[in-house]
């Protein structure tokens, strides 16, 4: 054994360092490399351990910092609201101002503590408010904005009735006019005594009316002058709107804007159950699916019932998808038909019903022929494609419906247990077991269902006088596809889209009927002869329908930049036809101002197609119809301000249109009228409200906040690397405008 006290000689050290040329030197060098590798491994392990410790320390540091930050937030909250603090010696009294107390109480009333926020945050945050704020009988809907408006209206009523407040503004002519407006609007005795005479006097001033005056002739009536007077003096827009606002592109200048008008009822209500409605609206909302629906339920082959069409994979759970559970519902309905004693008879009854309603409604308009052809083509395709799928009568009926989803071409539904379970539940009323091995489990479940037994189901005979949408709606009542018991809205769950579409069509038809009833009632009240006026009112309504067809839909106008067109007055005249002299009209509108209108005046047009087509419609419309339509717009806008019998006619109308079951107080109507954006009397009314509600320091605080926002915005401009210097300078300039 080597002596532990032995020391290496210089030569031995040289050999170990690999400086020797002897063969043994290579061996010694290899040993050294092994020693070095061992050393490197130790160093690497040490570094890894060091980094791990550093990471752990960093995580601990961040966690501590987050806890401290949360603690500071809690301490700040406690100091501000609760009057306590986590820091010793720094207790701040709680906020006990009226605003803080009201805000706290409002939050407590709004929250529903019985609802777990993790289960339904909306009901947790808003459930208390919904429970304590039922929809008032005279309102179609209710929310916090409307509740705030109600409180503001009550405040305005108190101020307008207060004699002390009136004395405060004795030298302010504008505010005095607001008081006079309110007094005239709420003077019930004078209104009841006058009845309809103010409206009749107005009609006489505007050239009389063919509906109330049989001696009326177009010789004494001028279209352009009447249009200007109605626009300028009454602020009504029977054909189009005209406003002066900042330009959409260059907001530093004002420009004359011309747009399509709005109507008393919606575009869909005007067009409901017409050929145009079915061609345009129904096609947009799913005519193809509707055709498939008819194809499913109106096909027979060799006198036997056949199930037509593939099952639509859209099911009840897919509420975001269009036409959820439609075909499932149809198949369920077919299952009921198969269960009857005479399924062929039931099916033939259904088939004949649809044939009759198609034939009955096809001649409504010439354009309806296209819709009829599409429906017939769908039925024909269904018969040709699925004639081999005649169902035998010795199988359980539910299985005959569901077995097809197990075919290879139905893989998406087959591989999705959740969707399949919803499908099964929608069709049978039962749910599949939690662990279900498809398809064997499904087959067992289906086979375990009792054999189909005859039911007392009988399809109600549909009278020929009922309309097309009503026929289909009643079919869906039998199918029972509505998940909310046929309510329009319940617990935020949407109805299936086709049922909702048909329900909406029904509502639109009710609105249209209510509007036509309103027309007849108002004409009777102002002394028009029913038989004499009936035909002319029909002409007025048809003209309104034609205008509605020309109007762009809300979706088409969603992006204002796409419908915006800047052109000169002369260019607009060239694009439209003769009936409207745009230079004469706009000059007359600005006659009382110092602004000069010339042919090169730039206009912002938001409905060029509408204006072009409207001009063509006016050219082809008799002056009698135009005069009747324009005067009707005056009547329907001003009649609600007359005596009780006129207001009652509008109450019946609003009950259908808006769903309100009570009549609005006169004072509330007056304040709403005064607060409209297009009513100039709203400015002095705002002065009264602001003086009562806010102090001078409140305005200073708001202005300081705006200044801070402006300065912060300017400071951030230099940090926007995507903005060049020229654009940045222009942005600064706009901020200071």
UniProtKB/TrEMBL annotation:
Coiled-coil portions: none
Transmembrane segments: 41-64
Keywords attached to this entry: Membrane, Transmembrane, Transmembrane helix
Residues annotated as domain Peptidase M13 N-terminal: 117-275, 511-736
Record Gene3D superfamilies: Neutral endopeptidase , domain2 (1.10.1380.10)
PROSITE patterns cross-referenced by the UniProt entry: NEPRILYSIN
Single biological process term from Gene Ontology: protein processing
InterPro entries recorded: Peptidase_M13 (IPR000718), Peptidase_M13_dom_2 (IPR042089), Peptidase_M13_N (IPR008753)
Cellular component GO terms, alphabetical: plasma membrane
GO MF assignments: metalloendopeptidase activity
Name of the molecule in the record: Peptidase M13 N-terminal domain-containing protein
